[in-house]
Amino acid sequence: MYTSISDGIVEGQGDDREAAFNERLDRGVKVEPSDWMPEAYRKTLVRQISQHAHSEIVGMLPEGNWITRAPSLLRKLILLAKVQDEAGHGLYLYSAAETLGTSRDLMVDALLTGKAKYSSIFNYPTLTWADVGAIGWLVDGAAIINQIPITRCSYGPYARAMVRICKEESFHQRQGFDVMWKLAHGTPEQKAMAQDALDRWWWPSVMMFGPPDSQSPHNAQSLRWKIKLFTNDELRQKFIDQTVPQAEQLGLKIPDAGLRWNEETGHYEIGPIDWDEFYRVIKGDGPCNRERLQTRIDAWEDGAWVREAADAYARKHAKTESAA
Amino acid sequence: MSKGWPLWEIFVRSENGLAHKHVGSLHAADAEMAVQNARDLYTRRNEGVSIWVVKSSDIVATDPSQSDELFAPSEDKAYRHATFYHVPEGVKNL
How many whole angstroms separate alpha carbon B49 and alpha carbon B52? Predict the structure, then answer.
């Protein structure tokens, strides 16, 4: 018997398979596309991986805003390379999601009709050049903390995509920190610009890890399935502990009056997070939600003729070849 | 919505002397575009010196529900492995 790699979707057959599936997960065996998996595991992964992909794609927009206005040719080249990487990350992830039986068109459609979510951080505007620095340093920094454990998650294609992504993210974070460093050590106006960017990006970055564990509906099951290896709050704490000293080294101030070092636990503690803002932005009412979605819709519609032309060309050549 | 371009599996040889290795997949209208897209997507940082693209639908694979019959027998044939044999004390170059 043989099969194809693209039609390995097998319907579930009761508890035996699920027990065997869980037992393999416990032994650390990875799940590959044609293996049997519970429907809910498949659905959770499709949702998570496609939202992750959408975030990479929409994530190109805030920074794309500064490509034509980068302060030097080198900064422009760096930013172009970074934004190109984000497109690549989106494509690795869409491919990983497709191994689960969904299609690219379905996922694009879910994004453009607003059915699918993406990371709420990309609904904030990039008002100054320092925002490019703050995004690289904070947003990509948070993304790395989120993504490194996923390189060890239970689903093979997702884990492998994440290995490639994490390699590239460290360039993203360092170039962002470098932008902040130069501004923080520049003129008083430049330093103020860096501080202003930190003031605006800090809290949205802290929120990137998602709702607190007490309110996170998917935590327990995802941990059981090894799709997640740490909880939202654990990852958030890691980000805070890593980033606060970096802000000090930059000579910038974290905009949180409640921030303090806890000698006993060896961790920083932060003031209360405004979760109302988080849910407002997630539900579509952030500063740039409509603009981001419209930009994606325009890009998809304006590119339709290119996709159709390539299709027609491929069909024409396939015909000529088969006739020859 | 378009019907969508077909899916291609991408294999990259990281350097001469090593085999091509599967790195992921992508969509492209034809083979030439698949190679071009693979170059942009999977080799932006010296990852390779050669790329193969294969239509996903052309790959034939073993059936995962038969993995036991296909692959387990090698486990009960321990004598196929060098470690099965006892090397007497003092015998060298074996």
Answer: 11
